Amino acid sequence: MALSTPLSQMSVALPIGIDGSSRSMIKVQSVSFTEKSCGPLLRLDTVSRKLSLKKRSTVCMSLQQQASRSKVSVTPLELEDPKETPINLYRPKEPYTAKIVSVERIVGSQAPGETCHIVIDHDGKVPYWEGQSYGVIPPGENPKKPGAPHNVRLYSIASTRYGDSFDGKTASLCVRRAQYYDPETGKEDPSKAGVCSNFLCNAKPGDKVQITGPSGKVMLLPEEDPKATHIMIATGTGVAPFRGYLRRMFMEDVPTFKFDGLAWLFLGVANSDSLLYDEEFSSYLKDYPENFRYDKALSREEKNKKGGKMYVQDKIEEYSDEIFKLLDDGAHIYFCGLKGMMPGIQDTLKRVAEERGESWEQKLSQLRKNKQWHVEVY
């Protein structure tokens, strides 16, 4: 979205302060855009977004901008029309060449590792639905197959079908940079770093990126019942599809989808600096308290009831009675994140079921039969 007004005539709130504890605000008059407004107030976080007003001629909605009750218009609404899920429009042998719009580090300095929010411009040629994935083929040669390209890496899409600019031309990925540290020396070994994640996290605006897909149906958001309950359980970057769900529910003005149910997000990360899209989710909690719940499990900062580290399964156990009742009433439950999250969660659910005098195996079978159980782990 290009700015149609000089910066001197804009109303921009700039938070000043490294730790966010003390913020000063600079205000000027009004803001308008050539196409559509990004909302009543544009917030540009000078620390987390590292945005230079001198260098940028366009401004899209910040990741940390408030999601107010005044929802954002989206286009083209034709993206609501197809009855069939878009699947594998582009395959590994003939990928689509997209462009990087932006790469943004979205974790604090105390987070273990680096996670980036990456916006990709597909020019509307690779449409997708919430809950699907893109494949990315990093540049270079596959070391195990000389002369052949790298294998496709799948990433859950972290935006709605309209993208972060609400025009149906971009998709966003949430990517953690894969790094390897020698257990003996403690030093990083670049030769064993993740090829695709490092390519994406190092990318610059305008860089080309080959994508495939979209793929996947198991995590599609069921929209037949706008009053349904959706329980979302994520670890780390597994929150990606849920960001798409929640933006569709609470941020975007979609005429054919008016959500009036309950969305409940459980997010497990290492510490407060590792929280992903926290300001976005917290704004929904403020604006839609009857429709959204948000629980965090910070393993390095919190203790569970037994005195151990607080993991997402401990939060599930804490609210187990409510969760089981909601599942009995038809709620959908989703899991996304590392494969290692599932054994602990399954053990917790089995233990809770047995305490309730139920067979977890039978209950799980029924949830799958009713299409209430959605799992995507990697």
From TrEMBL:
Keywords: Electron transport, FAD, Flavoprotein, NADP, Oxidoreductase, Transport. It catalyses: 2 reduced [2Fe-2S]-[ferredoxin] + NADP(+) + H(+) = 2 oxidized [2Fe-2S]-[ferredoxin] + NADPH. Pfam families: NAD_binding_1. Gene3D superfamilies: Nucleotide-binding domain of ferredoxin-NADP reductase (FNR) module (3.40.50.80), Translation factors (2.40.30.10). It is found in: Plastid, Chloroplast. Its EC number is 1.18.1.2. Its cofactor is FAD. InterPro entries: FAD-bd_FR_type (IPR017927), Flavoprot_Pyr_Nucl_cyt_Rdtase (IPR001709), FNR (IPR015701), FNR_nucleotide-bd (IPR039261), FNR_plant_Cyanobacteria (IPR035442), OxRdtase_FAD/NAD-bd (IPR001433), Riboflavin_synthase-like_b-brl (IPR017938). It comes from the Eukaryota. Belongs to the ferredoxin--NADP reductase type 1 family. PANTHER family: PTHR43314. This is Ferredoxin--NADP reductase, chloroplastic.
